[in-house]
Amino acid sequence: MKKIILTSLISLMLATNVSAGIDGENSLSKKNSGEVKDCFEGINRATFKFNQVLDGVIFEPIAKAYRVLPSPVRVGTGNALDNLSTLVTIPNNILQGKFKKAGVNTGRFVLNTTAGIAGIFDVAKKIGFPEYEKEDYGQTLGVMGVGPGCYIVLPVLGPSTIRDTAGSFANIFGGDAWYNITIANNTQHFSDFDYYTSRLGSGIDFRAKNIDSFENLEKNSMDFYASVRSLYLQDRQKKIANSNAITETQNDSDWEEIELQ
């Protein structure tokens, strides 16, 4: 039970990270975040403050130390972690009806895992594969028409919605092949440690890449909590809208042209 809870929490952290760019005036935070209600705002703000303290004491210092590593080490680590995330992206490509993209990402995974030495080198990108776009089960639920529900802030893990939180649990119910071969099944080649290390590494890698962006956002926001909420919700809405657009285009037989752009 402890393993399941810990795994779901770590998976949530990765699923709910916001990677949107942030300009000096924080223009994104000034836009409407949509119809998602902040039903638990009081609790969310308290949790948000707790996460800020935790981040300042633990995660930000680790991320800054990570940034000191040579660029080839950081790039290789990021590539390997992205390669593992493909194992979640592929089934979501299929569930969203993007079969060609699922095939492309399968080829990307096989090529990078073998020729790219466990994904350290992004060989697929070098030979012309299209830009990799991550997919997750929360996004797939959105594409299927499931509403986001209330906005919530999770301890340690950060921003989410009821839908995205529920979607993340698919990872521990067979939706993540990496979880299946490291934790769900007792294999000789991989262990629980490999899974948790990769998930922790993804969080550190993300935090290191966005230190300046978050500092800039906090500095230029009158309400940092509201800005992060707005950015997260807009990021999720944008990804779901793009996926819906691609699916609709697929139904009109124009899918291949869209995918190659």
Structural features, described:
This protein is mostly helical and 261 residues long. Helix content is 65%, strand content 3%. The protein has twelve helices and two strands; from the N terminus they run ααααααββαααααα. Strands 1-2 form a two-stranded antiparallel ribbon. A hairpin with a 3-residue loop joins strand 1 (151-154) and strand 2 (158-161). Helix 2 (41-67) crosses helix 9 (192-209), helix 3 crosses helix 9 and helix 8 (177-184) packs across helix 9 (192-209). The radius of gyration is 18 Å and the shape is globular. Residues 1-33 and 248-261 have low confidence and may be disordered.
Low-confidence stretches: 1-33, 248-261
Helical content (DSSP H or I, runs of 4+): 55-70%
Secondary structure class reads mainly alpha
DSSP summary: helix tally: 12
- Quaternary state, please? single chain
List SSEs in N-to-C order: HHHHHHEEHHHHHH
Largest sheet: 2 strands, antiparallel
The value of Rg in angstroms is 18 Å
Average pLDDT, all residues: 82
Gist?
This protein is mainly alpha-helical and 261 residues long.
Give a topology summary.
Blueprint: H1 2-15, H2 41-67, H3 71-95, H4 99-114, H5 123-126, H6 137-143, E1 151-154, E2 158-161, H7 162-168, H8 177-184, H9 192-209, H10 211-220, H11 224-251, H12 255-260
Antiparallel strand pairs: 1-2
